[in-house]
Amino acid sequence: MLVKMTMWMDSSVVLLLLILFCHPQGSAQGRHERRLLNQLLKNYNAMERPVANESEPLILSFGLTLQQLIDVDEKSQIITSNLWLNMEWIDSNLSWNSSQYGGIKDIRMNPKFLWKPDILMYNSADERIDSTIPTNVVVQHNGTCTYIPPGIFKSTCKIDIMWFPFDDQQCIMKFGSWTYDGRALDLRLYSEEADMSAYIDNGEWILLGFRGKRNVIFYTCCPEPYVDITFTLHIRRRTLYHGFNLIIPCVLISSMALLGFALPPDSGEKLTLGVTILLSLTVFMLQLAQTLPPTSDAVSIIGTYFACTMIMVAFSVVMTVVVLNYHHRNSDTHEMPQCIKTLFLKWLPFFLRMKRRGRKTNSRHVFFKNKMKELDRKERSSRSLIANVLDIDDDFRSHNSTTSYLSVRTNEETVNSHVCGVTQKEISTIIRELRFITNRLKTEDEATVIINEWKFAAMVMDRVCLILFTLFTLLSTFACLFTAPHLVA
């Protein structure tokens, strides 16, 4: 038992010696840092402005580090970004001789124990005006304090939608002291350009610049100058997303509206196609309205293009109704005026190189017309018109009108002679029927001519509308889209 106790005591001594000899050499720094902190905070007042001469302003160097552009909300006109605030000033109460404190040249201190500038974003849109996360302040032996609090900032930004989606936006971020004027706290710009070395690219916006500017403003209420640092964020929208989801579908839909004038009126789908295209454009217009802010200051270029396209499609629907009305007119309800005949049957077809096809004539009328020509030729012979129509001789005129019979041919040599006889009343009935049929066919032919004229006028109007609306679509597309500052970004 005694031997075991002796062995345990020997191992404890060895372990103690190892701890003493292996103790890190820098452990003495803990005592120096503790002593330094106690000395610095002994009579320190966090409410006191740390300057040697109270009549002089405290100089604060201010800068920004942009980490990420999180979101640009056009409808709410708010931009969300991840920023680091870089602030540096000299605290005359926090300087020491590093040789007296074990060579310590800088320490980290909690900001709640120190004076720090009350720098806030003036145009903040966050519920909490101060969006920063408190971090330690790095204090150097000469009194220089470096404070870099990160934060997610929401700032107001007036969105200019005139050239949407080919737009550039310039959003300002205004920083300054909330309570100190320029005679107590003088802000100096750390660098004209914000630090963007660690910037993460945004999928919707391209960062063009982030410049800062120092402003000194005198307000009417106060004679003191107020200093602020304003950074201007210059960004450009990437147009690929909106090009595939808004512009190209709109151009295609407006081009399909032109096909309505190439569709035959008898198909029954001309009006349906125009109304369907108009409803499709309305859906895209609603999608655009949900993206842009509800402002009346300016109209976006894509909104102007959509409006022009919708007007064109609506007017094309109206012209389609007119074309269908012309196409289905007839001689019983409408008579074509002379001005329309001159315009749509002569001048416009001449300029458009359109030719009318030959008139379609009823086959029965062709037969009777040919028959009448044949009768005219037979009239030159010795037989009369009735004899030519009935294919009989003229000797029926020498008999009595009520009792005589007409003989066609008499063959005294044959027993079975054929005799064709009709009364004068039957002949009059036949002539009356022939005149009725001829007049009816002539009336039908005239009606067919009038119907064909209306149909040809509708065809000419279709061709004119096709050319005019094609020119309007091309001009509006080039005028609205290709006048943008840039097309591809």
TrEMBL record:
Stretches that traverse the bilayer: 240-264, 271-289, 301-326, 464-484
Statement: the UniProt record of this protein carries the keyword Amino-acid biosynthesis: no
Subcellular location field: Postsynaptic cell membrane
Ranges for domain Neurotransmitter-gated ion-channel transmembrane: 246-479
Signal peptide: 1-28
Keywords, in A-Z order: Cell membrane, Disulfide bond, Glycoprotein, Ion channel, Ion transport, Ligand-gated ion channel, Membrane, Postsynaptic cell membrane, Receptor, Signal, Synapse, Transmembrane, Transmembrane helix, Transport
Domain Neurotransmitter-gated ion-channel ligand-binding, first and last residues per copy: 33-239
Membrane topology per record: Multi-pass membrane protein
Predominant subcellular localization, coarse grouping: membrane
Keyword Ribonucleoprotein among UniProt keywords: no
CDD domains assigned: LGIC_ECD_nAChR, LGIC_TM_cation
Family matches, as InterPro entries: Neur_chan_lig-bd, Neur_chan_lig-bd_sf, Neur_channel, Neuro-gated_channel_TM_sf, Neuro_actylchol_rec, Neurotrans-gated_channel_TM, Neurotransmitter_ion_chnl_CS, Nicotinic_acetylcholine_rcpt
Database matches in Pfam families: Neur_chan_LBD, Neur_chan_memb
Gene3D superfamilies: Neurotransmitter-gated ion-channel ligand-binding domain, Neurotransmitter-gated ion-channel transmembrane domain
Function: After binding acetylcholine, the AChR responds by an extensive change in conformation that affects all subunits and leads to opening of an ion-conducting channel across the plasma membrane.
Stated family: Belongs to the ligand-gated ion channel (TC 1.A.9) family. Acetylcholine receptor (TC 1.A.9.1) subfamily.
NCBIfam families in the record: LIC
Name of protein: Neuronal acetylcholine receptor subunit alpha-7-like isoform X3
Organism the protein comes from: Limulus polyphemus
Gene: LOC106472571
